[in-house]
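If you are new to this repository, start here. Below is one unmodified record pulled from the training split, so you can see the exact layout before writing a loader.
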Amino acid sequence: MHDHDTSERLASYADVLAGELPDAWTSFHLPADAKDDLAELADRIWDLDLVAASLAERPLQQAAVLSRPDGAQLALLDRHDERDGFLIAAVAPRALPDEAYRAVPEPNGIALADDPFLSAEQVVGDLLARYDSALAQVRHNALGGIQPSQPDRVVLTWQPDGSVATAPADDRAGAVLVANGFVQDPQSGIYRLNGDDTQAQARALREIGPRLDALGIGTALQHPAGRAAPTSAPASIPPFPAASRTPTTRSR
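And here is the target side for that same chain:
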C-alpha cells in the first residue's frame, strides 16, 4: 500500500471513530513531514505496554490525534505487525508536574479492528474508562493544596504568593471567575486570581460571592494547613463560610 493510501486510510478511520465517540471528539492527522509534532506526541503517549513496544520497534511515522473539548486526547497509530487495524493510546496532558503522575497506573493502549464502528464501542468500554480515571487522578494530584470544589460549592484557597486559586466543578462557576479576573490553566483546570493588587483582588472576591450565589453555588475561603492568608489582604474580603483547613492529600 502506498504511503498516500496509508495516510488516507488512517485519517478517514480517525474521522469516523471520533464521530462515534461520545462528547464531541474531533480528529486531525499528523503526516510524516510533521516531525516535531510527531516527536512531541510520541513523548506524551501514556503507555507502557502494547503501544510503547510498537514505538520502540518503529518510530512514529504518522498519527491521528483525537481530541475532546476538556483537553483529553487519544493517538491513533498504524500497526506494523502484519495485522489489520490500528493501535490507539491515551495521551498525557501537557504541563502537569511529574509528581502528579506518581502511583497513577498508565491507561495502556489497545489494538483496534479495521471496523471503526465496532472499535468505538471497544474504546468507550475499555480505554476511555481507564483514561478518564487516570486523568482525574493526575489532575487531582496536580491541585496540591487546593481543595477540589463541588458542583454546588466553590472552594477558594490562598496561595503562598498571595494569589487565590480554585478548581471549580461547574462551567458556570468558571465563567463567573474569569469575568472577575481569574485566569484558568487549561491543563490542570485551576483558576488563579493574582494577588499583586490586593484591592482589586478583594473587590473581585466580593463580586463573585453574590454572582455564584445567584446560580445556587456557595463559596468558601480556606488557607492551606500551616499557612495564614497574606496580611496585606484587606480584612473585609467576603464573609465566606468556614472551609476545612485540611488540604487535599496527594495520592502516592
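Two things worth knowing about this chain: The two ends are 47 Å apart (CA to CA). The longest helix spans residues 116-142.
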